């Protein structure tokens, strides 16, 4: 059993960078599911998805109609022949097909918490929004074909002449950064427990669940795009009594790539 995992490459060591695909990578590593990464550049994702009958994961409104968007992560399971996109849908599928009795690693949806964790996932997506404009610099780590695609599509989506014009500056940057800190502080409260003293605790205790993977994926995205030595990442790492650097440190055993 070896799952084929489709990810978007970058110029970084190990290539992995996207918060969406990191959810699946963390999941595969934690669940001990053997996999092989195949890398697909941004402009090739749609053709790949259509070739394998993978439906779009997002529908964006446009001036004339609704525009389907095809995204990664995606997987192919050679044992069943299935192709599947969307990190949560992938996790649900793999949980059913390869439970703990097969992999030896526990579920990320313990105690029938799938519904609650879907709500958590949605809450994180709606809460952590301000930092995304600060991560436009991701374009600098992409390979040429993906960089051109990303600049063209995001410039149109953000309605700016030049992509870098959308990066917050001056007083606007200060206000947005403070808002981002408040957003993370809110999420931090979802992790707190009375038993937490010095050792890092995941949402439900000593073992990560899907909720931890969702937040860790956001964090590793920031760390990789900004750089581990950047002022931005080091500031985030200090927030909330070091909770965010603690979460990534706790998830480090599941952060390997097969590059």
UniProtKB/TrEMBL annotation:
Transmembrane segments: none annotated. It comes from the Eukaryota. InterPro entries: Glutathione_S-Trfase_N, GST_UstS-like_C, Thioredoxin-like_sf. Residues 8-102 form the GST N-terminal domain. Pfam families: GST_C_7, GST_N_2. This is GST N-terminal domain-containing protein. It comes from Crepidotus variabilis.
């Amino acid at each position: 059993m070896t799952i084929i995992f489709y990810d978007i490459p970058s110029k970084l060591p190990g290539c992995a960078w996207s918060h969406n695909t990191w959810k699946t990578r963390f999941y595969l590593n934690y669940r001990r599911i053997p996999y092989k990464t195949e890398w697909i550049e941004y402009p090739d994702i749609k053709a790949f998805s259509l070739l394998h009958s993978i439906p779009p994961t997002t529908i964006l409104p446009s001036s004339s109609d609704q525009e389907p968007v095809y995204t990664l992560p995606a997987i192919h399971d050679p044992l069943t022949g299935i192709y599947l996109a969307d990190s949560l849908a992938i996790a649900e599928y793999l949980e059913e097909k390869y439970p703990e009795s097969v992999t030896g690693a526990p579920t990320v949806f313990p105690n029938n918490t799938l519904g609650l964790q879907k709500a958590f996932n949605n809450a994180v997506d709606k809460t952590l929004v301000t930092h995304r404009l600060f991560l436009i610099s991701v374009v600098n780590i992409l390979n040429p074909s993906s960089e051109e695609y990303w600049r063209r599509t995001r410039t149109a989506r953000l309605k700016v002449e030049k992509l870098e014009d959308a990066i917050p500056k001056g007083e606007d940057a200060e206000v947005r950064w403070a808002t981002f800190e408040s957003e993370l502080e809110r999420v931090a409260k979802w992790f707190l427990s009375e038993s937490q003293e010095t050792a890092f605790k995941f949402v439900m205790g000593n073992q990560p669940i899907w909720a931890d993977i969702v937040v860790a994926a956001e964090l590793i995205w920031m760390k990789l795009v900004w750089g581990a030595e950047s002022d931005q990442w080091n500031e985030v790492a200090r927030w909330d009594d070091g909770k965010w650097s603690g979460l990534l440190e706790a998830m480090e055993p599941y952060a390997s790539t097969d590059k």
